[in-house]
Amino acid sequence: MEKYIPVLSRTKLFAGVAGKDIAAMLGCLQAKLRRYKKGEYVLRQGEQMHDIMLLAEGALHIQRDDYWGNRSIVSSVEAGDMFGEAYAAPDSGALLNDVVAVEDSAVIFFDSGRVLRVCSSACRFHSAVVQNLFFAVSERNRTLVQKLGHMSRRSTREKLISYLSDESKRHNSSSFFIPFNRQQLADFLSVDRSAMSSELCRMRDEGMLSFEKNHFVLK
Question: Would you place residue 120 in the very low, low, confident or very high pLDDT band (cuts 50, 70, 90)?
Fold first, then answer.
């Protein structure tokens, strides 16, 4: 667990908390480290949630498959990202999506009850962590609104333009990597992969962008 203190210190949950203080809080928050191989499920739809999680290493996808096996990727989780916070409230219901490791990954689980209630020993920075959690939930809501903006576009091209434009702004650069391969991007935007690939090629031929695997340059 100690090796991931530098990662935790860069997360939104522990913003403003020094590494030595994070180390002291891990026991208070009942932190547990679990490792997953690529392709393993971290969580499955229908499970009850009692933890807030931080990805310490690797990459995850939050996704959902329908009855016929059609997949939709809700979001990607990168090292340092928090997930599960939407289920921190009591009686929040069962998990609506699967969480799958797309790389060998390490996840730190924090008991949500211990995070939300400042302990009797009054950890010095516990109140700051609770405040950070509120800010992180607000940011996650904004991210979901962004995705709704992509999904509301009528055509595959419009969805691609909306998504790639936002990624360019997020990276503050016209050159950036996205966390998806072609099939995963199609699943994220809920479009046909072949149609999307054809549209990307047309956009490239029109001089709008260039790409190599998951690296894009907007022109």
Answer: low
Same domain, 72 and 167: no
What is the pLDDT, as a whole number, of residue 118?
A: 67
Please list, residue by residue across 95-113, b when 16 or more beta carbons sit within 10 angstroms of its beta carbon and e when fewer do: bebbbbbbeebbbbbbbbe
Domain containing 160 equals 153-218
Do 178 and 133 fall into the same domain? no
**In sequence order, which residues have a C-beta less than 8 Å from that of residue 79 and are 6 or more positions away?**
7, 55, 56, 57, 58, 59
In Å, how far from its chain's centre is CA 182?
18
DSSP annotation of 147 reads H
Beta strand residue intervals within 85-153, DSSP E = 98-101, 105-111
pTM above threshold 0.90: no
* Number of domain units in the chain: 2
pLDDT at 203: 97
Distance (Å) of CA 42 to CA 47, 49, 53, 76, 106: 11, 12, 10, 13, 10
Same domain as 111, residue 28? yes
